[in-house]
Amino acid sequence: MFIGEYKHTIDDKGRLAIPMKFRGDLAKGAVVTRGLDASLFLYPKEEWDKLAQKLASLPLGQSNSRAFARLMLAGAMDAVLDKQGRLVLPEYLRDYAGLQKQVVVAGLYNRLELWDESHWQSYKSAMELEVGDIAEKLGELGV
Predict the structure, then answer these.
(1) Domain boundaries, the chain
(2) Residue 6 near residue 21 (C-beta atoms within 8 A)
């Protein structure tokens, strides 16, 4: 289970250190892909396989289904942690998420999200202002 918020730095080779507490969950393999809200999603291989199967089963006749599957699947790549617990983020994914030097690694139960620190702060501030409305809407859904 991934929870928490951690700040790390991308080095000149595009490597990002993953927090120590998450490395064991990613040791059997991981996949990084384009995420939502200008972030990247990093899944343990097992979780990625579940999601990829769902995406592959979306109806091909619906353009939104095709578009979302393309975003997630075509942008994905296997991620292997080195001995120092770092993974290389390819330039196309860093560009997509606007990742500069400082990155926030946010744990969201079954995945990690990778955010440029300034984007994360802006997003988080905006959501904190709306948390009451969000909670009310989720309450209507039984959460």
Answers:
(1) 2-116
(2) no
pTM for the model stands at 0.92
Q: Which fold has domain 2-116?
A: Chemotaxis protein chec (3.40.1550)
Q: Which residues contact 133 (CB under 8 A, 6 or more apart)?
A: none
Burial class (CB in 10 A: 0-12, 13-18, 19+), 108: middle
Rounded to 5°, angle at Cα 46 from 142 and 7: 75
What letters, b where the CB count within 10 A reaches 16 and e where it falls short, cover 113-141? bbbbbebbeebeeeeeeeeeeeeeeeeee
**35-94 pLDDT tens trace:** 999 999 999 999 999 999 999 999 989 999 999 999 999 999 999 999 999 999 999 999
